[in-house]
Amino acid sequence: MGLELKKISKTFYDEECGEDTAAIHDINLSVENGQFVSVIGPSGCGKTTLLRIIAGLESPTSGEVVINGERPDEPWEKVGYIFQEYALFPWRTVWENVAFGLEIKDMPKKERRDRALEYIRRFGMAGFEDKYPKELSGGMKQRAAIARTLINEPDIILMDEPFGALDYQSRSHMQKFLLELWEQSKKTIVFVTHSIDEAVFLSRRVIGFSNRPGTIQLSMNIALPYPRDILSDAFNRCRKDILTFLGAASK
Prior knowledge:
- By secondary structure, the protein is α/β, with parallel strands linked by helices.
- The protein folds into 2 domains: about 1-80 and about 155-250, Rossmann fold (3-Layer(aba) Sandwich); about 90-155, no CATH class.
- It has 8 helices and 9 strands.
């Protein structure tokens, strides 16, 4: 069981030119439970479109999504989505943001606050529970966004360039933090990134998209042990193979 994408295609209608534009075409992909998969490819090749289809936020033009043997007909509650922009509510405190999904489920306030505080502590944010997003660093905002997703106990976590807005040091810290969470939780993660180093550092498998319309042109297993040495020869060989693919895919 796990995530299966069967012949997924998505076409958008462009009102300005009166024509259809194909975003992705004939995507077939199986992701085992507990696997960490990164998706790379040229800008505009449909990576975000694919995540939105998996999450149930977009409907494919053709094909189907199957999760643990079931075909969801609406946004799937067992799928969590983490955006690059953090997507925190600025008028809510950290704990209120983290507990938002529990509030939607009508969990009593004391219970959801207790659970949110536990996640905040686990995520190294104790003492920040009553702060507002404007008072947090970029890395802290993303920790809060991840906590808000995981507190709802999804089976699959979708991440769309979640560390793209961070500086190098913060990004490095968040990558290591995410790996620790994944190794502890064994959640299935589908992670979109433009960074080759990030894909190799994090993933068990890298999926490469062609230029638009996006099709899968690369499926590469990363067999390196964790933690990974970004200066090792093996790491650089993986990096080189992906860089070669991206150079060809962008033409």
